[in-house]
Amino acid sequence: MIDDELKVGTRQRDGVWIIDLEGDVTTFAEDAITSAYEKVTAEGAKYIVINSRQSDYINSAGIAILIGVVTEVNRQAQKLAISGLSAHFQKIFRMVGLAQYADIYAGEDEAVAALQKLVQAV
Amino acid sequence: MSHNQVTIEIIFPSELGYEKIARDAIGTLARNMGFDAERVEDLRTALSEACINAIEHGNQRQAHLRIHITCTISRNRLVIVVSDEGLRFHPSTRLDPASMEQKLAGLASARGMGLMLIGQLVDECGFLPSRPGQGNHFRLAMYNPPRRSATNIA
To answer: What ipTM goes with this model?
Structure first.
């Protein structure tokens, strides 16, 4: 009812697909995030950044959605990075163990640069 | 109640999203008590997770049931009790959820991290004794300065 609806956008940047998240990442975000991931995958994305923009509220249900994305990324042999998390949520992602399976960067530029190295290495 | 202790209560329906009101209110209180920014964020996240558990597991998302939050503030301690109306009794806490490896392999639910997170973010936490049908009461506490050596009370 009072959830800050998540806005999700997708774009391509130098061979890397970006999924922008703006708003709360909670149980209500599942369809939006999953649809965005499926869209970029259908476009042939191999390198994906989930870029959190002004997401002040990420809870365990939201993290569970991202775990689902990581599971699919592994199945599809894609590479995922996460950027834009506050220092607090970077800590939370480390606590739950998600940081071991998706590289976390402070900003989008760093995340894209890291994935571009992989693009160029192919 | 002594003159230097204040109790604040927040009551809201069992609908996901309302926990943000409690999170923001208690975060403001903690900030005013002098907790540093990182601890305030820790508390906000821990309280959100406790509320979500109460909404989803205690009250099973029945909106007509209420979540009660009682926050007691003293000079260096903030104690919060999150209570539901107890349709399902919590037999125990679960601070050791399935590993991320198990979750990613589809061998365990991707959920179930809330209590583990709370346990890492606050100084004390755990369910208070209650009987089935009398509601579940989850207590969490933070001290300023922190008492990280404190153990979970459950």
So the answer is: 0.90
